[in-house]
Amino acid sequence: MFFHVQRMINEIVPDEPDPGAANALQEGLGGQFGEMRTMLQYLFQSFNFRNAEAKPYRDLLHGIGTEEISHVELIATTIARLTDGSPRYQGSPTALDEPAAGGVTPLSNALSQGNIHHFLVGAQGALPVDAVGNPWSGSYVYNSGNLVLDLLYNLMLESTGRLQKCRIYEMSSNRTLRSTVAYLIVRDQAHENAYARALETLGVDWGKVLPIPKTRAERYPEVAALLEQGLENKQYTFDLDHLSEAGKIFREASPSDDDGTLTTAQAPEGVPIEIADPRPEEFAPGLDPALLELVQATAEQELAEADEPWRYGPTS
Amino acid sequence: MFFHVQRMINEIVPDEPDPGAANALQEGLGGQFGEMRTMLQYLFQSFNFRNAEAKPYRDLLHGIGTEEISHVELIATTIARLTDGSPRYQGSPTALDEPAAGGVTPLSNALSQGNIHHFLVGAQGALPVDAVGNPWSGSYVYNSGNLVLDLLYNLMLESTGRLQKCRIYEMSSNRTLRSTVAYLIVRDQAHENAYARALETLGVDWGKVLPIPKTRAERYPEVAALLEQGLENKQYTFDLDHLSEAGKIFREASPSDDDGTLTTAQAPEGVPIEIADPRPEEFAPGLDPALLELVQATAEQELAEADEPWRYGPTS
Amino acid sequence: MFFHVQRMINEIVPDEPDPGAANALQEGLGGQFGEMRTMLQYLFQSFNFRNAEAKPYRDLLHGIGTEEISHVELIATTIARLTDGSPRYQGSPTALDEPAAGGVTPLSNALSQGNIHHFLVGAQGALPVDAVGNPWSGSYVYNSGNLVLDLLYNLMLESTGRLQKCRIYEMSSNRTLRSTVAYLIVRDQAHENAYARALETLGVDWGKVLPIPKTRAERYPEVAALLEQGLENKQYTFDLDHLSEAGKIFREASPSDDDGTLTTAQAPEGVPIEIADPRPEEFAPGLDPALLELVQATAEQELAEADEPWRYGPTS
Amino acid sequence: MFFHVQRMINEIVPDEPDPGAANALQEGLGGQFGEMRTMLQYLFQSFNFRNAEAKPYRDLLHGIGTEEISHVELIATTIARLTDGSPRYQGSPTALDEPAAGGVTPLSNALSQGNIHHFLVGAQGALPVDAVGNPWSGSYVYNSGNLVLDLLYNLMLESTGRLQKCRIYEMSSNRTLRSTVAYLIVRDQAHENAYARALETLGVDWGKVLPIPKTRAERYPEVAALLEQGLENKQYTFDLDHLSEAGKIFREASPSDDDGTLTTAQAPEGVPIEIADPRPEEFAPGLDPALLELVQATAEQELAEADEPWRYGPTS
Amino acid sequence: MFFHVQRMINEIVPDEPDPGAANALQEGLGGQFGEMRTMLQYLFQSFNFRNAEAKPYRDLLHGIGTEEISHVELIATTIARLTDGSPRYQGSPTALDEPAAGGVTPLSNALSQGNIHHFLVGAQGALPVDAVGNPWSGSYVYNSGNLVLDLLYNLMLESTGRLQKCRIYEMSSNRTLRSTVAYLIVRDQAHENAYARALETLGVDWGKVLPIPKTRAERYPEVAALLEQGLENKQYTFDLDHLSEAGKIFREASPSDDDGTLTTAQAPEGVPIEIADPRPEEFAPGLDPALLELVQATAEQELAEADEPWRYGPTS
Amino acid sequence: MFFHVQRMINEIVPDEPDPGAANALQEGLGGQFGEMRTMLQYLFQSFNFRNAEAKPYRDLLHGIGTEEISHVELIATTIARLTDGSPRYQGSPTALDEPAAGGVTPLSNALSQGNIHHFLVGAQGALPVDAVGNPWSGSYVYNSGNLVLDLLYNLMLESTGRLQKCRIYEMSSNRTLRSTVAYLIVRDQAHENAYARALETLGVDWGKVLPIPKTRAERYPEVAALLEQGLENKQYTFDLDHLSEAGKIFREASPSDDDGTLTTAQAPEGVPIEIADPRPEEFAPGLDPALLELVQATAEQELAEADEPWRYGPTS
Fold first, then answer.
1. What parts of chain D have a pLDDT lower than 70?
2. How far apart are CA B150 and CA E177, in angstroms?
3. Residues of E in contact with B103 (CB under 8 A)
4. Number of structural domains, chain E?
5. What pTM was computed for the model?
6. A113: pLDDT confidence band, cut at 50, 70 and 90?
7. Which positions in chain D touch F23 (Cβ < 8 Å)?
8. Three-state SS letters, chain B
9. Domain assignment present for E305
10. What residues does Ca(2+) bind to (chains A, B, C, D, E, F) (predicted)?
11. What is residue F242's DSSP assignment?
12. What phi, psi does B147 have (nearest 5°)?
C-alpha cells in the first residue's frame, strides 16, 4: 500500500521556459530508459518476487521502485515548468486572457519547437511519451523472474538512464532543466550502486568498469554540488513500517570504484509542491470564473477523521 | 513524494490457480481501462494541475491516483497467484525441482491456456499487458488540462472499469479472482462517485443515470458483503501530511442514486504481503542454493537510522 | 460528401453463434488486408488525387472506396451476429436477465474461445482489430501519389483480401460466416478486375495470372451462386450526382482470364438492417427499463423538414 | 449502405501553402481525438447497437458517423492544399518539371518543416497520422455497448476535439487552415449538443458546464460568422430513405447554456470538389504524358445505366 | 558485405506438425529476446562501432551478428515445419488438392490452436511476431554506443534468450521443436560466454553467477548430446577474408563456471536446405500447373559467369 | 547459412555531417519501404518457400535478400557518417574531450535538427526507425505464400523504395547522402527488373509502365554515372556454393522499357570498411583509456584454425 506527501523529492530551480529542452527531458520521463519505466519495472519485479529467503533483494526493489514514483513526479513537473508560457508568447496579454480575440495566434511557437502535443494535446504539461513522441509502452518492463538476470538488467537500465541524462545535460544550459537532470544523474548512480552491490553479494567483482558512464561527473557543476553531499552512496527505503531489509545489501564500500561507503535512510525531506497558474489560452483555467464562484459558495468543512492506524504526520 | 508499507490494500482469498482467469484479469491491470491507466492518468493530471484556487480537485486526483498504485499492487499480485503452479502440473515433483529432467514437460499447459507469456516471458507472474496481450500504452493517458473535461473523462473511465470488472466476474467463479474483482467493483464505484460529485459541485445533476453499470451489484455475493460496509461511499486521501482538501468535494449525498453519504478517511488498514515460493521449473528460484549460501554467509546488520522527518510507524 | 440508407449491402444468413469464426472474420474487418484498410486507402487516394485529366481513375477509387464503407458495415454486423449469445450460454435464463445472480458465470466461454475482448471490452460486437487482436493501424494505408504504383498496390491488396477470405471459408462451415465471406470473395474479384483493368488501359497485359488466387472459386457452393449472377464483373459507382467517369475504365473484357464483360451500375438494392436484442449480462440493454420509460414519456414528434437539394428517397 | 456526391461539405478558402500548419491539422484528422476516430467510433457504435426500442439513439449515431466521413474528406483535402507546393519551392521551374535536373533540390524544405512524410511517403497529401506522426490506431475506438457510457464518451470526445481545434486556431492565421478549423469548431459543438441532449433525455441536467471549452468562440472571427447561421444547433441525418429518428432527440433547447434551439435537416448543399494539379517533382503526375496518350486513344463511352432503386439526383 | 550458402546451420529433426509448439517457438524468432533481435542488435552495434583500437570487440559483434542471421533461418524453417499440414487435416485428400470442394473445412484447426495467422496470413510458414502475435519492433534494438553498456546488455540478452528456450523446451516433447531449441540453448550459452568473456577482458570477475539460468542443462537429453561436443565453448567468425580479431577475446577459460576452454572457428559445416511441398489448400502451390508449364517451356540456361574476386566454393 | 567480408558493397563519399539529411535517409533504412524491410521480407519469403520445381524463384529471393543485408550495412553506415560530429559543434575542443566541463553544451544542435534520438539514444549512429521516428515493425513483412502475389508485392515494394529515394535525392545535395542514395536508386531498379521479369516468365507483359517512377533518372548526375556501367541490369547471387538458379529468370531483355539486357554475377568487389572515431561527448569512446590499457596488456594471439569446409578467401 502506498502513501504520499505534498512535497517534491528535490527542488526545481526557476528559469525561462524552453520547449526544446522540455522535449529532450521527455526521454527521461517516458522514454525506454526513463523514470516511468524504472518505476514500473521495479514495482512489477517486487510484486512478482519469489522466495522469502531473498527478502532483502525484494525490499531493495520495492524501495527503489517507490523512489521512482517520486522521480516521475519530479521530472513531469520539471517538463511542465519548461513548457509553461513558452518561450515568450507573441502579442498582447489580451490574446492570452481572451484566447484568439481578433484572431491572434498566441500558440504559434508550437509549430516549430519541441513537441507540438505539449500545446495541442496537453495544456503545457508533461506527457507519457519519449523525445520523439512515441508513447510509453508496457513492453519496456523487464521481469524475467530470474533474480540474477533481473539485477543485471536493472544495472544496465540505471546506467543507460544515467548516460542519457549526461547527454541531455550537454544539450542545454537551462537551469530548470539542469537542476532536475543533475539530481537524477546522481540518483541513477546510487541505483547503479544498489544493483551492482546486490550482484557483488552474489559473487561478482566489477573491477574498474563502474560507474557507467565512466565518470563521477564532477565536471558538471550542478552534479559536483550533489556529490559533495554523498548523495550517490545513499539509498532510501520509503517504508513507513520499518520492515525493509534493503540495508542488508546496500552497505559497505561502493562498487563505483571510488572510496564511498553505502548507507540507507528512510527518505529525504523534500520541498513543498506549488500548483501552476491557469493558462486561459489553453482553455485550462483549472476552473473558469463562473464555475469557481459556484464552488466557493459551498461552505468550508473539515476533513472527516477516521480510525485507521496510518495517521502519521505533523498534525497527528 | 511517495511512501509505502508492506501491506496489501485488500485480502486475496486463496483458491486453485487458473491461467484463463488470470488472463482475463490482465485487462483490469494493463488494459486500456485498467488500474495502470487510472494510476498514471490521475498522477499526470495531478502533476500538471493548474490553479491553486481549485486545490480540492487536485487533491482528489492526487489521492485517488495514490490509491491506484495500491490497486496495481493488488491486481498484479492476484494475477501472480492465479498463474502460480497453474493449473495442476503434469508429471512428478522431480520435473519441477529438476526442470526437464528426462525430458519432461511441466509447462505444457502454457500452449493452450491463458497467455503463454505468463510462463515464457514472466515466471508465472503479472505482466503490463491487457487480456489479448497488447502492452500498456502511454497513449491511454488523458489529460487535456481542462478540468471539466478531465473530470468527465475520469467518470467515464471508472464506469468502464467497473463495467469490465462486472463482466470478468461473470467469466469465472474462482475465489482468488473474485475476491479482487469484487473489491475493485466497489472501489470503482467510489471513484465514480468522486468524479460525479466533483461535477455536481460545478452544477451538473446526474438524475438517475449513476452508477454505471446501472446496478448496485448486490446480486454478486462477494460485492454485497462489501456494500454492507459502505465501501462505495468512502474515499481515502493517503496523505501523510494531512494537507489534502479532497474532503471539501467528497461529502454529502452520493450521486449514485441511493441513500449513501460520502465520507473521507486516510487509509484502510490493509493486510500483510506474502512472498511467493520459488519455481525451479521457471528458473525463478529467487536465489539458487549456492548463491543463497553466499548471501547468508554475510553477517546480519541493522538498518542505519537517519534523521529525516518521515520516520513514522510502529518502531519510531 | 457522404449519405447512407438503412439497408445492408448483402444479406446475412442466420446460423448458430460461433466466437471462433467471429474471430477469424476480424481479419477481414480490421486486419492489414481487411475492409477498414481498403475503405480508408481508397478514400485517401481519392482525396489526395492529382490531375483532372485522369478523373476516371479518381472516380474509380472514389466509388470502390464508398463501397468499402458498406463492406465494413456488412462484416462488422456479421461478426456481431456470430458473437451474439455465443455459443450456448450456461445456466438459467435468470443468469442472463439478472447478471451474476447467485454468482453464476454466463460469460465463461470467453476464457477459451475466440477473442476475449468480444465479451469483455465490447458487448458481443465487432472490434477494429485483426484475428490476433492487433488494433487496425493508419500505417497500413498506402498512397504514394504515383498512380501506377497506387493501382498496382490496390490490385495486390484486393488479391490478398480474396486469398485470405478463401482461407477463412475453409476454416468453418457456419452459414452466417459463409454468407458474408462468399459475397466478399466475389466482390474482391470485382475490385481485382477494376484495378487490373485500369492498368490494362495503361498498357499492361496480364496474360493468365488473374484472378489471384487462381480460381474462379466455383468449388465453393455459396460463391458459385453469386458467380452465376456475374457479380464479379459488375462495379458500382454509389454516386448520387451521376458525375462518376469510372465506367470509362471498367468496361470491355474482364482481365480475369474468363469470358466475362465488365459493366457498371449505381448500387445494389440491399436488404433492411435489423437492430440486435439487448444483452443484460453485458450491461448492454441499449436502455435499461427505468431510462426507457423516461424517454418514452417524451412525446413523439416528426422530423423537421429542411430545404437542401438532397431530399431523395421514397418519402420525397 | 453508403453513397457519395462529388461535393465537399464546406468550402476551403485558398491561401499560401504552409506545411507547419498542415502538420498541426493532422491531429484533427488522424489524432486520437480527430475525425477518423469520430467517424469510426460512431459507425462501430451504430453497427453494434442493441435494442430496437432505442432506435433514435442508433440513428443519431448513424447520422453523425456519416457526417464524419465528410469531415475526413474535408480535413484531408485541407491538409493536401496546405502542403501542395509548400511553401515556396527554391530554384527554377525546370527543377519541378524535370525533377533533379542538374542535381537541384526542390524538396529541401521537407527537412525542416512540418512532417517530412508529407513529401517523402505521400506526394504532398494528407496522411492517416497525428501531429507527431503516430499512425491512427483502432485502439482509439470506444464502444462499450452500454448506451449511457457510449454517449458520455462521445460527449467528452467531441468536447476534446473542439478544444484541440480552438488551440490549432491559435497556432496560425493561415486562411486555408482557419476556414476548415472554424467550421469544425462549430460542428463539434453541434455534436456536443447532440450527445449532451441525448443524455438529457435520460435525465441528466448539465447546468452551466457546456459547451466545452466554455466559450461560444465568437472571439474567433471565422467562427462568429458561422454561429450567425446557427450552425451549432443544427444536425444532419444524411439518410436517403428518410427513416432516421434522430430528430426525436435532437430538438428543443440547446444544452449549451445559450438560447439556441436544436433542429435537424437532411444535409447541407456543399461545394464542388476540385482535383489538384500534378506534381512532377514528386513523380505524382496522375498520369505521365505517354500513359495519358494511351488512355485518350481509347474511345469515350457513356456510363452503363442499371435498374437499381437508388438512381436519385439531378440527371434522373 | 554478406554471402550465403544453401545449407542450414543445424539439422531439423522430423516429427509430427504441432501448431501450438510452433507458436511457442515464435517467441524465439520474433520475440523481444529472440533471434531477429539479436541479429539486428549486433549488426547495428557493429555498423555504428567506434574506435579502431577496439576492433576485436567489433569483430566479435560482427561475427555473432552474422551467426544470428543463420539462426533466424533455422528457427523460421523449424516453425514452418511445425505448422506444415498441422496437425492432421480433417476430411479427404480432395479437400486439400481442391480447396473447399463441396464446402469442406481443411483449415478448421486454425480456429483453436496456436496463432491463426500461421494459416490465414501466411501459408503455414513463420511470421516475424512473438508468441502472442505482437510484431517484432525496431524499438527492441539496443545500441547505446557505450561499449561496456552494450556488452552488458548483450550478456543479459543472450541469458534471457537461453532462459526462454529452456522454458519452451519444457512445454513440448515434439522432436522437431526440441532439435532446434536444444541447439539454440547451447549456442546462446556460447554467446553468453562471448560477452561475459569480453567484460572479463575489461576487468569484471563473474564468480559463480554464470551461466544464466544456472545450469549446464545436461538434464535436457538433446542438450546433453551437444554439450558433449563442447559446442557451448566454440565461436564462429563467418568471415571470408580472415580479418576477424574476435579470437583475441574468445579464448582461455570459459566464464561459465565449468572447466571449458573457449576457441574460435570459421563456420560449421551445416546441412542441405530442403524446399517444402506445395499446399494447394492455402493457394500456395509455388506455381500452379498452368504457370509452371509456361516456365518450363523456357529453355534451360547456365548461370552467367562473372569475374569478381568472391568466386569461392566447390565449383570454382 | 550466412557469411560476411569486412567490405562495404559500395563507397560512401565523404562530406560535411548533416543531421537533417541523416534523418531523411532513415526512411530508406527503417521505413516501411526501406532496406530492413526488403531484407527481412525476401528472407522470410525464401525461408517459407514452397515447391522445389519453382527453385529459381526461391533462389532469386534468396539472393536479393542477401544483397539487402549489405544494403542495410551501407545505409546504416551512411547515416552514421552524416550524424557524426554534426553539424559543427559549438565551443572548444575541451568540451568534446571532457564532456560538460564547465557546463558547456556540445550537443545543443540535437534540440533543433533531425532526430534527437541520434544524439540521445544512439551515439551519433543509425537507428532502426523511419524518418519520423517510428520503430521498424514486423507487421511490414509481406509473405502470403502465393508466389504471384509475393512477386507482385515485391515489384511494388522496390518501386516505392526507388520513388522515395528519388524524393530524398531532391531534398539535399550532401555528397555523402547522394553517393548512397544514387547507388540505391539504381539497385532498386535492378530489383524492379528482377521481379517484373519473374512475372514476365509467368505471362505478364508490362508494356510501357516500367520502371517506376517512369524515368531512367539520368538527370540525376550521380545516378547517370552508375547507369553508364549498366548496374540496373545486373543481379548478384551472393551464393558461395554456386547452387543459385536465379539466372534462369534474370536474363534476356530488361522489362524496363529500354534496350538493356539482364545478366547475373556472384558479387561486386566492394570497398574496405573503416571504423569511426570515438566521441567522448557521447561517452562512446569504444574503450576508455584505462580499460584500453587493461586490454592491451593481454598478449596477442593468433586465431585458432579449424577444419570446416568454408575456409575460403585470400589467406586460405
1. 87-95, 297-316
2. 51
3. 173, 178, 220-222
4. 1
5. 0.95
6. confident
7. 111, 116
8. CEEECCEECCCCCCCCCCHHHHHHHHHHHHCCCCHHHHHHHHHHHHHCCECHHHHHHHHHHHHHHHHHHHHHHHHHHHHHHHHCCCCCCCCCHHHHHCCCHHHCCCCHHHHCCCCCHHHHCCCCCCCCECCCCCECEHHHCCCCCCHHHHHHHHHHHHHHHHHHHHHHHCCCCCHHHHHHHHHHHHHHHHHHHHHHHHHHCCCCECCCCCCCCCCCCCCCHHHHHHHHCCHHHEEECCECCCCCCHHHCCCEECCCCCCCEEEEECCCCCEECCCECCEHHHCECCCCHHHHHHHHHCCCCCCCCCCCCCCCCCCC
9. no
10. 59
11. S
12. -60, -45
CA-based torsion, D307, C36, D39, D146: positive or negative: positive
Cα–Cα distance, E115 to E112 (Å, whole number): 9
Is the pLDDT reported for residue B262 higher than 60? yes
Structural domain contains residue B133: yes
> Residue C286: which pLDDT band, with cuts at 50, 70 and 90?
confident
Give which of D6, E11, B193, A134 is closest to F136, Cα–Cα: A134
Spatial distance between the Cα atoms of C303 and D244, rounded to a whole number of angstroms: 8
Amino acid at C252: E
Residue C295: inside a domain, yes or no?
A: no
Name F271's bridge partners: F8
Q: Which domain holds residue A118?
A: 7-286
C-alpha D249/C-alpha B280 separation (Å) is 63
E182 has pLDDT over 70: yes
Interface of F with C in 167-226 (CB under 8 A): 199, 202-209, 212-214
- Give the residue-averaged pLDDT of F74-82: 97
Chains A & F: contacts with CB separation below 8 Å: 83
CATH number for the domain harbouring residue A76: 1.20.1260.10
Q: Do F66 and E315 touch (CB under 8 A)?
A: no
Q: How far apart are the first and last CA of chain A?
A: 20
Q: How far is E48 from chain A (nearest CA, A)?
A: 17
Q: State the first-to-last Cα distance of chain F, in angstroms, to the nearest integer.
A: 20
Tell me whether residue C71 is annotated as binding: yes
Contacts of C228 (CB under 8 A, 6+ apart): none
**Which value, to the nearest 10 degrees, does the dihedral of the CA atoms of residues B119, B123, B127, B131 take?**
20
| Grid cell listed for D125 | 497529401
Q: Among A122-136, A278-292, C85-99, E31-45, name the one with the lowest average pLDDT.
A: C85-99
Closest C-alpha to F117, from F107, F127, F108, F104: F127
Is A102's Cβ below 8 Å from some Cβ in F? no
Give a yes or no: residue D316 inside a domain: no
Confirm whether residue B35 is marked as ligand binding.
yes
Cβ count near E261 (within 10 Å): 11
DSSP calls for E114-156 = S-THHHHTSSS---SB-TTSPBPBGGG----S-HHHHHHHHHH
pLDDT at F305: 46
